[in-house]
Design brief:
This protein is an all-alpha fold. It has one domain (50-282): MetI-like fold. The chain is built from 13 helices and no strands. It has helices at 3-23, 42-48, 51-82, 90-102, 105-115, 123-131, 148-173, 177-185, 190-201, 203-218, 222-228, 239-249, 253-282. Helix 7 packs antiparallel against helix 10 (203-218). The longest helix has 32 residues, at 51-82. The protein is globular and about 75 Å long.
Length: 283
């Protein structure tokens, strides 16, 4: 019964990765007239000394350190607010907050490019100027090295928080109501019930959503490609952007495959950390 799934996994996941792993030890370049040569670990040595990759990984790390906790906290707050039995409008608000998840990135990019328009004609600059009583200096968010990555973070949080909210809502619905009733009888207030009942019971769900968001933070590409193309001056370059640019712009397949292996190792590391956290909980 599982053979079709196993066959698909072998053909479309494991086999391509194995081929990429082998190519990463070569100098294969589709745009070069020279034949492919086996270079061993030279590709990986070049990656370790590549300042562009170091900058991209640093951007990914900063992206994850901001987006993962912020998005998880917002999703948890929304899930708690919308988890009200008998509230007729709960379904409507859930659909509203989840809607950005299903929007194509091309549409989202057009909307946010307009929001980030430079000068006071841009809605974001106008709003910040109004909130600061006119003291805000208008900026070109997508072309300012200090603000470009933060602008992409805000977009990603807005689009992804709905998915985390739905997952956490599912976790909240699995918590027995008896626990809340017992806590209320013991004199626990809403904040104490949240700390002593909700958070412990949602621990595994929170770990899963944090892991999922961390992986997405290291594979962020669409918004970078559409809005900034890695600029300005590499301020928004990411691991996945470097990988795609190596494969499809520079046609350096050996380097692209080495980056693929690096990305898979990062995913495996994050997954291992999740399993370790869950195992400690079980113990």
């Amino acid at each position: 019964m599982v053979s079709p799934a196993v066959l698909g996994l072998l053909l479309f996941v494991l086999a391509p990765f194995a081929l990429s792993f082998l190519i990463s030890f070569t100098d294969l370049s589709l745009g070069s007239p020279h034949p492919m040569h086996w270079v061993g670990t030279l590709q990986y040595e070049r990656l370790f000394h590549d300042p562009a990759l170091a900058r991209a990984l640093a951007n990914n790390l900063r992206f994850a350190l901001v987006v993962v906790p912020l998005q998880t906290a917002l999703a948890l707050a929304l899930a708690v607010l919308l988890h009200r039995p008998g509230w007729r409008l709960a379904g409507l608000y859930r659909a509203i907050f989840f809607a950005p998840v299903v929007f194509p990135m091309s549409l989202v990019a057009v909307i946010w490019r307009y929001l980030y328009a430079p000068g006071l004609q841009g809605p974001a600059n106008r709003l910040l100027s109004w909130l600061s009583l006119g003291h805000w200096q208008a900026r070109d968010f997508l072309h300012d090295p200090e603000w470009a990555l933060g602008a992409l973070m805000a977009l990603s949080v807005w689009q992804g928080v709905g998915l985390q909210m739905v997952i956490l809502l599912g976790g909240l619905q699995q918590i027995p109501s008896d626990l809340y009733e017992a806590a209320a009888l013991d004199g626990a207030g809403p904040l104490q019930r949240f700390r002593r009942v909700t958070l412990p019971m949602l621990r595994n769900t929170l770990i899963f959503t944090a892991l999922m968001t961390s992986i997405l933070a290291f594979r962020v590409f669409d918004q970078v490609q559409i809005l900034t193309h890695g600029g300005p001056a590499g301020a928004t370059s990411t691991l996945m952007f470097e990988l795609v640019r190596s494969a499809f712009e520079r046609l350096q397949m050996g380097r692209a495959c080495a980056l693929t292996v690096l990305f898979v190792l990062i995913v495996l590391l994050l997954t291992g950390l999740q399993r370790l956290a869950l195992r400690q909980r079980a113990l």
